[in-house]
Amino acid sequence: MGPINIIDRELVNSVKWDISPDTYDIRLHALNADYDEFVIINPIYENWILNYIDVSPSSSKCQMWVKGDKWIAKKFKKSWTPKDGWTVVETNFKSEKINEVVLIKEHNQDLPIYLFDEVKYDIELEDYNLKHVWYVDPKFTTEPIWARSLSATKNPVGIKKMGFITPNIVEELDVIFISYDETNADSNWKKVLAKCPFAQRVHGVKGIFEAHKAAARLAQTDMFYVVDGDAELVDDFYFNYQPSIWNRDTVHVWKSRNPINDLEYGYGGVKLFPKHIIEQATSWGVDMTTSIGYKFKTMNSVSNVTKFNTDPFSTWRSAFRECAKLAGNTIKNQVEDESVERLDVWCNVAHGDYKKYAIEGAIAGRHYGEDNKTNPDALKLINDRQWLKEQFNEQL
């Protein structure tokens, strides 16, 4: 059997039903200009329907395949006229299920769909014109929310509810501790292990972005916590927060307490990252936490004290970097008045160890950020440890 010549569906749709079946078929037949033999498919069906009926027989008559009161396909010769007549074939489908290969698969774009397994289902032919819909397990939502669907046609006339899909969410999310050269990293790591014995550590990876990439490779859960090497967890913080299905693609940041000036905001706080966002990222802005994802959520509680003041350089470097980011407007959705207020505190308030270096680093960072607001390449240098060391030595 050679190729089947099928008349375009839009053309077929343009032919309106006439009270006379003969006139209707004459109009359908007139759509052909090129083929000696051709097939017209009822536009309520897709072309895949020919996988289920045998249209290979040739006849001078118009052959019409039907199922019940619906015609499915008609086959004509170019020479056909109504005088040649019709042959009606009651369809005996080769299979009663539509193969998954031809189905139209959709998912709810508002959901992190990677949490929901693909559905495997062959639609019954009698349900060809219904959209088959699976919903989110009601344990995870307060109202019916669809997750995935299958259709055998682009124009379904109704919905068939297929049941629920449970998202692949584990009770305990992975925790990754990232350290480089912090003098208090080991003691902070012990506190992390005390709260989360299954926590893992990334140590000595050069580059903030690269270290987070390494953390994502270690993580086995869809989201994972990141604790910085200089973060000392507070007693009442625990790794037990579980985002809803609507926030599984959102970067979460807890507040941190600054030991030098007592500010409490996201600087140095524990983060909760969607694994797939870190894995797929190819670049990032000056402030990685707020630039890596398009959705960002600030948590109201304090997770840790960021003890960056362990030596002169670490203190100066941390103050310089943060104030350069604040002054350079590099933090996504930052509020200007809030940033100015924090900068004023960084540059004027200090107590505790190495407070002199905190003030000097903050002032230098503020000037650098203000001078380079429109120079992203210059601002990115604040993430280069060697460059920061050179700036520190020059200032000394």
Secondary structure layout:
Elements: H1 9-14, H2 21-29, E1 37-41, E2 62-67, E3 70-77, E4 86-90, E5 97-98, E6 104-107, E7 123-124, E8 130-136, E9 146-151, E10 158-165, E11 174-179, H3 185-195, E12 200-203, H4 208-218, E13 223-228, E14 231-233, E15 251-257, E16 264-265, E17 271-274, H5 275-280, H6 288-291, E18 296-306, H7 312-327, H8 336-348, H9 355-371, H10 376-380, H11 385-395
Helix pairs in contact: 7-8, 7-9, 8-9
Short description:
The chain is of the alpha/beta class and 396 residues long. It has helices at residues 9-14, 21-29, 185-195, 208-218, 275-280, 288-291, 312-327, 336-348, 355-371, 376-380, 385-395; strands at 37-41, 62-67, 70-77, 86-90, 97-98, 104-107, 123-124, 130-136, 146-151, 158-165, 174-179, 200-203, 223-228, 231-233, 251-257, 264-265, 271-274, 296-306. It starts with 8 loop residues before the first helix and ends with a helix.
Shape: elongated
Give me the number of helical elements: 11
Write the H/E string, N to C.
HHEEEEEEEEEEEHEHEEEEEHHEHHHHH
CATH fold label of the largest domain = Spore Coat Polysaccharide Biosynthesis Protein SpsA, Chain A
Question: What would you note in describing this structure?
Answer:
By secondary structure, the chain is α/β, with parallel strands linked by helices. The chain has 4 domains: 9-94, no CATH class; 98-165, no CATH class; 169-307, Spore Coat Polysaccharide Biosynthesis Protein SpsA, Chain A (Alpha-Beta Complex), CATH 3.90.550.10; 312-396. It has helices spanning 9-14, 21-29, 185-195, 208-218, 275-280, 288-291, 312-327, 336-348, 355-371, 376-380, 385-395; strands at 37-41, 62-67, 70-77, 86-90, 97-98, 104-107, 123-124, 130-136, 146-151, 158-165, 174-179, 200-203, 223-228, 231-233, 251-257, 264-265, 271-274, 296-306. Strands 11, 12, 13, 14, 15, 16, 17 and 18 form an 8-stranded mixed beta sheet that branches. Strands 1-3-2-4 form a 4-stranded mixed beta sheet, with no helix packed on it. The mean pLDDT is 91.
